[in-house]
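User: My instructor asked us to take a sequence, write out its structure as tokens, and then describe one feature of it. I'm not sure where to start. Here is the sequence I was given:
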Amino acid sequence: MKEISLCMIVKDEEEVIGRCLNSVSDIVDEIIVVDTGSTDKTKNIVSEYTDKIYEFEWVNDFAKARNYSFSKATKEYIFWLDADDVVLEEDRKKLIKLKEGMDGTVDVYTMKYNYSQDENENPLIVQRRERIVKKANNYKWQSPIHEVIYLTGNIVDTDIVITHKKHEIKDLNRNLKIFEEMIKNNVEFDDRQEYCYAKELYFTQHITEAIEQYNKFVNKYIDGYELRKELLYSALIELSDCYKQIGNKEKEWETLLLILRRQIPKKDCLNKIADIFFREKKYKEAIFWFENVLKIQDTLEETYNDYYANICIGVCYYWLGDIKNAYFYNEKAGKMRPTDEIYLKNKSIYEEN
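Assistant: Let's start with the prediction itself. The structure tokens for your sequence are:
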């Protein structure tokens, strides 16, 4: 069994930092917390768990702060979390078991990241992130914003889930401001930063500017699609949603077709295609595409996308006058999210007919 250092960067996290540390403090062997300028009780709370609290002057660079936290680690492996992350009980057990079996042959352990949930704690966005890395490999975080570690070595994907219970963001434009400062300082973006800048514009609802940046990114790299497959796929999915928001159905279609021409689509892409037919009230065509969502096996995507597809198939059948199938597919959705308001509302409507 190898020892683990938990490394975190924090600022004004008094609402959530205790919850995070409570979930892992008895599993890790060392807790390193780098504070970037808290003015609340964050450091007081952290001091109940560790005396290894370091100050780092914030310079609008998440990578520098994270690398500083990694530099303070003394154990064989480094585990990173954000203050609003938590390891739930079932995943705590898996993490303990993982640690007991660590023999030093693995360089990187990845974990699922339940990034957002609905009101009933059902996952909406699930990603996979590097979480535990071997200190001796000297991995470095890259990029001032949306920082990333470029991984090498023996990488093992685990089924452990880190749950992100995001609290209120005080400055929605914080990340965008960092990008704008980089532009002002003539920083040359790499491909990932180009994509992330477009995504930040999309996230902050600067839709016109987001469309412009997404198109610049796509046009620049589309001919080498396989080389940047994940970035381009995400960019096209988000660009299609931008066009949906401004009511440009033709461009929405064109964007999704760029994916279909280059790869087997994922569930979210098929849902978006089905949704176009649904909005046009072409319910049979919509059912075809929604049913294809359910045929794809992808554990990172299936929870929300399968629920949405089943709900929508039910609604399509309802408008086609097939109440039996409407009820059947709505119940399939209900097994995934039995307390969801949409499922319950549709259930009531179908039972009345």
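For the description part of your assignment, you could build on this observation: The longest strand covers residues 123-134. Try explaining in your own words what that tells you about the chain.
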